[in-house]
């Protein structure tokens, strides 16, 4: 297995930022089974990293804290699916490639790790192969890989509706100091949705002309994650994780996506770093990461 940080040595590199659901409202369900969602999404300045190099034959290598978990994933890995799907579209331009994934985010943890990896693969391979696609065609391609992939292609603050494909950029959303926390307990997304008691909840509604961290923090606090109660029922550690973040001074703590990752918003970066260190000391077997989200103005 390659050493940590090998992605730095590759000719083309891409960041796969952690996707944070600041709010997630389940507003309905389509006839095909897909749930309708309203999501307030931002992206953290941490995540996985990918490197890309021309090769004699396709190669996929892994490193990072959670790399071994994916080692037996084979053709189901979203990175490989993204490579193969893009290759079908671009044809002869798509020479063999060595892709290296530095897997720093927990697997299936509600922060878009696999989707972010797929989006980064699309971006990186287009650069390596020297090609581009129209925005609409690329978004359609991304949606075939998963409902979260179009959002991760954007990797900036946004509101997403429908199944995730209706995206509206949020230029006024500020950056937040944050701690990501995960008890490293598996959460089944289908099971969380199965436990969801109501699937026609009120839509996300934000006041117009929100400005400043205080106003946005109040708006986020007034919103919710409809998947958190059923996820807490399935994995009690989620409630404990949120409580630990609040005990360390988080201004707000909530689960992201379908879990089990929770985020805590802190007053500043120093407070987030201090909290992450204390939490890691208390539970060294869990995942804690101090970070900062990116602002809508980038």
Automatic annotation (TrEMBL):
<dbReference type="Pfam" id="PF08544">
    <property type="entry name" value="GHMP_kinases_C"/>
</dbReference>
<dbReference type="Pfam" id="PF00288">
    <property type="entry name" value="GHMP_kinases_N"/>
</dbReference>
<dbReference type="GO" id="GO:0019288">
    <property type="term" value="P:isopentenyl diphosphate biosynthetic process, methylerythritol 4-phosphate pathway"/>
</dbReference>
<keyword id="KW-0547">Nucleotide-binding</keyword>
<keyword id="KW-0808">Transferase</keyword>
<feature type="active site">
    <location>
        <position position="148"/>
    </location>
</feature>
<protein>
    <recommendedName>
        <fullName>4-diphosphocytidyl-2-C-methyl-D-erythritol kinase</fullName>
        <ecNumber>2.7.1.148</ecNumber>
    </recommendedName>
</protein>
<dbReference type="GO" id="GO:0050515">
    <property type="term" value="F:4-(cytidine 5'-diphospho)-2-C-methyl-D-erythritol kinase activity"/>
</dbReference>
<comment type="pathway">
    <text>Isoprenoid biosynthesis; isopentenyl diphosphate biosynthesis via DXP pathway; isopentenyl diphosphate from 1-deoxy-D-xylulose 5-phosphate: step 3/6.</text>
</comment>
<keyword id="KW-0414">Isoprene biosynthesis</keyword>
<comment type="similarity">
    <text>Belongs to the GHMP kinase family. IspE subfamily.</text>
</comment>
<comment type="function">
    <text>Catalyzes the phosphorylation of the position 2 hydroxy group of 4-diphosphocytidyl-2C-methyl-D-erythritol.</text>
</comment>
<dbReference type="InterPro" id="IPR004424">
    <property type="entry name" value="IspE"/>
</dbReference>
<feature type="active site">
    <location>
        <position position="19"/>
    </location>
</feature>
<dbReference type="InterPro" id="IPR013750">
    <property type="entry name" value="GHMP_kinase_C_dom"/>
</dbReference>
<feature type="binding site">
    <location>
        <begin position="106"/>
        <end position="116"/>
    </location>
    <ligand>
        <name>ATP</name>
    </ligand>
</feature>
<feature type="domain" description="GHMP kinase C-terminal">
    <location>
        <begin position="211"/>
        <end position="282"/>
    </location>
</feature>
<dbReference type="InterPro" id="IPR006204">
    <property type="entry name" value="GHMP_kinase_N_dom"/>
</dbReference>
<dbReference type="GO" id="GO:0016114">
    <property type="term" value="P:terpenoid biosynthetic process"/>
</dbReference>
<keyword id="KW-0067">ATP-binding</keyword>
<dbReference type="InterPro" id="IPR020568">
    <property type="entry name" value="Ribosomal_Su5_D2-typ_SF"/>
</dbReference>
<feature type="domain" description="GHMP kinase N-terminal">
    <location>
        <begin position="77"/>
        <end position="153"/>
    </location>
</feature>
<keyword id="KW-0418">Kinase</keyword>
<dbReference type="GO" id="GO:0005524">
    <property type="term" value="F:ATP binding"/>
</dbReference>
<dbReference type="InterPro" id="IPR014721">
    <property type="entry name" value="Ribsml_uS5_D2-typ_fold_subgr"/>
</dbReference>
<dbReference type="InterPro" id="IPR036554">
    <property type="entry name" value="GHMP_kinase_C_sf"/>
</dbReference>
């Amino acid at each position: 297995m390659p050493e940590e940080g090998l992605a730095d040595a590759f000719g083309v590199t891409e960041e796969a930022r952690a996707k944070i659901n600041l709010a997630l409202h389940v507003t309905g369900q389509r006839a095909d089974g897909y749930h309708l969602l309203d999501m307030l999404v931002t992206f953290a300045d941490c995540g996985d990293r990918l490197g890309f190099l021309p090769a004699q034959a396709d190669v996929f290598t892994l490193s990072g804290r959670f790399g071994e978990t994916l080692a037996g994933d084979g053709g189901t890995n979203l990175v490989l699916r993204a490579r193969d799907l893009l290759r079908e579209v671009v044809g002869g331009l798509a020479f063999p490639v060595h892709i290296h994934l530095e897997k720093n985010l927990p697997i299936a943890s509600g922060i878009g790790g696999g989707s972010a990896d797929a989006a980064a693969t699309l971006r990186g391979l287009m650069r390596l192969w020297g090609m581009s696609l129209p925005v609409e065609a690329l978004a359609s391609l991304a949606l075939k890989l998963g409902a979260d992939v179009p959002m991760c292609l954007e990797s900036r603050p946004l509101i997403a509706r429908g199944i995730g494909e209706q995206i509206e950029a949020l230029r006024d959303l500020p950056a937040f100091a944050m701690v990501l926390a995960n008890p490293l307990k598996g959460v089944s997304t289908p099971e969380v949705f199965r436990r969801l008691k109501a699937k026609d909840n009120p839509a996300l509604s934000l006041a117009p002309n929100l400005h400043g961290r205080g106003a946005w923090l109040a708006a986020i606090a007034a919103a919710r994650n409809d998947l958190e109660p059923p996820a807490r029922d399935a994995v009690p550690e989620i409630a404990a994780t949120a409580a630990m973040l609040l005990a360390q001074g988080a201004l707000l703590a909530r689960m992201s996506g379908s879990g089990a990752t929770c985020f805590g918003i802190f007053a500043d970066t120093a407070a987030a770093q201090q909290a992450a260190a204390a939490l890691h000391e208390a539970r060294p077997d869990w995942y804690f990461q101090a970070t900062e989200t990116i602002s809508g103005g980038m």
